[in-house]
Amino acid sequence: MARRPLPRILTGGSASITRSREIARTAADNATDVLHPLITVTRGLRLLAGAGRQKWAATPRDRRGHVLFLVAACVLALALIPYGPLLALVSVMGAAAWRGRDRSPAKTGPDEAETARLRALYEALVPHFSVADDPGPLFSHGGDWEKAFGTSYVFDGDGRLTRLQVTYPAYFTDGDPASRERVEQVLHAKSGRGREYHFAWDEEGNHLLMTVLAALPTTIAAQRFVTAPGETVLGFTDADAVRRTVPVQDGDATRDASPVIWRTGARSTEPHLLIAGHPGSGTTTLMRSLALQALQHGDVLVVEGGGTGEYGFLTGRDGVLAVECGLAGALATLEWAAHETERRLIAANRARQAGHPEPEDIKRPLWILLDRPSALGHLAAADGRQDPQEHLQVPLRHGRAAGVTVVVADQFDSLDALTETVRTHTRARVVLGPADREQVESVLGTRPHTTPTQDVPPGRGYTRLGTGEVLRLQVPATPDPYDEATSEAHRRAVLDLLPGGAPVVERAEAQAGGELPPVPGEPLVGAPAAAEG
């Protein structure tokens, strides 16, 4: 089947809009430069006219006749002498240009409040950047802060630092993470809490650049992203963190956003994903977003350990093999997934030995989404059954070759319940919600270069793919469309992404009302089964 071309708004619309804005902005700047003398003279004429009106209003009524006679005499004299009108016009224009010039003083340095803030920050860094036997210390109590900061600082409208470059001594142990963290904590506390700071250490030049990061947008909802097969959008990050952009619908406008692309398949280096967070941090939202994207090219198998029915809208849809909430169903489903992985491996091996292409029934990707397996593990231990995570060994070890992708999501307080196989083979990691640096490091393997904040919206966090860089992340809004608290716009955005096939709940209601005949052998399911106790 031939691939349908992308709509023009997705391929060239955003670029043309951006190019048109740049052209209009350049034209406006050029027009301002060309017309600047005329603007200055016009402003001066307006100021001179205003001054004349004020002078006339302040003149007593009994003297206004003498003033008019004097003005008329001057005008007559200028009209009679050679080049008088021209000289008068030049004089008036010169006076207007002088009066209309921009006389606002240019800011050449920090004001008193900003100077006090920089001095306090300098004094706070003295214990970290100084030693007792330094003959010419760069940092010393009562020293010159301009030597360390120079002019590389920017303040916002509220007088708080948004950018600062610090020059530190060469003997500072900038290769020690603990030393770095102490300096970053001081800068964070003295520059203002409640914001997210990024720290860039230049060890060769002995410079530390601190910048305030803008909040990632939370207005991007679930939609069909422009990606290739095998690519999944985890969320969106800072524009300078990745080199790729995709067009997205942000409210009523279309713009380019910087996505975090996770690649799966046979050539993926991180074929499986682990998501960690606190309750309400957005882990289930990310799982729903991954499920909607996976259904575009593959099959999905969902196992929910919480038993809250967050994935009930997927039941009965094309490509959704199962949505299980109970322990018995989860064990049976994951056991089938393990056997299916083995079957795919055997079929692919036989095809390669025979010199044939892979069979069509193993080419379609299979996604296993396991939400809160620790809850199912507790139920299995109480009932004397096998932990469902044991069935993930084969999909995790051999899933990349078999086209099977495993995504596991759990809470911070339950990460210890994950098996060693799950922690070893899920090398793509995501941390969502409020978390300190120690928690982020325990999941991602390294600390982020930013300062996490306590108040974050759902779906905000960090991600790291394998041994790559830690990136900030904002998950696209993908709520449960059957939740009463979901807005109509978000509900419609999620439902529009679902593949064909009526949901089981809607089909059951239609059959109960006589609109559809019952399907032989199919139970009428009204809601996902609750977790077994």
Overview of this protein structure:
- Helix 9 (about 325-355) packs parallel to helix 11.
- The two termini are about 50 Å apart.
- An 8-stranded mixed sheet has the order 11-10-12-13-9-14-15-16, with helices on both faces. The protein has a 4-stranded antiparallel sheet with strand order 1-2-4-3. A two-stranded antiparallel sheet has the order 5-8.
- It has helices spanning about 10-35, 35-60, 65-80, 85-100, 110-125, 145-150, 175-190, 285-295, 325-355, 375-385, 395-400, 420-425, 435-445, 490-495, 505-510, and strands at about 155, 160-165, 195-200, 205-215, 230-235, 245-250, 255, 260-265, 275, 300-305, 320-325, 365-370, 405-410, 430, 460-465, 470-475.
- It has 15 helices and 16 strands.
- A hairpin with a 5-residue loop joins strand 15 and strand 16.
- The protein is elongated and about 110 Å long.
- By secondary structure, it is of the alpha/beta class.
SSE order and pairing:
Blueprint (H helix, E strand, L loop, with lengths): L7 H27 L1 H23 L5 H17 L3 H16 L12 H14 L19 H5 L3 E3 L5 E7 L9 H15 L4 E7 L4 E7 L17 E6 L9 E5 L2 E5 L1 E5 L9 E5 L5 H12 L4 E6 L15 E5 L2 H28 L11 E6 L1 H11 L9 H10 L1 E8 L8 H6 L2 E5 L4 H8 L15 E6 L5 E4 L13 H10 L6 H9 L21
Helix pairs in contact: 2-4, 3-4, 5-7, 9-11
DSSP, total strands: 16
Helix content class: 25-40%
What does the radius of gyration come to? Answer: 34 Å
- Mean of pLDDT: 85
Q: What is the structural class?
A: alpha/beta
Q: If strands are numbered along the chain, what order do they take across the biggest sheet? A: 11-10-12-13-9-14-15-16
Give the N-to-C terminal Cα separation. Answer: 48 Å
Q: Roughly what fraction of the amino acids lie in strands?
A: 15-25%
Query: What's the main sheet like?
Result: 8 strands, mixed
Q: What low-confidence regions span 5 or more consecutive residues with pLDDT below 50?
A: 8-12, 504-511, 514-533
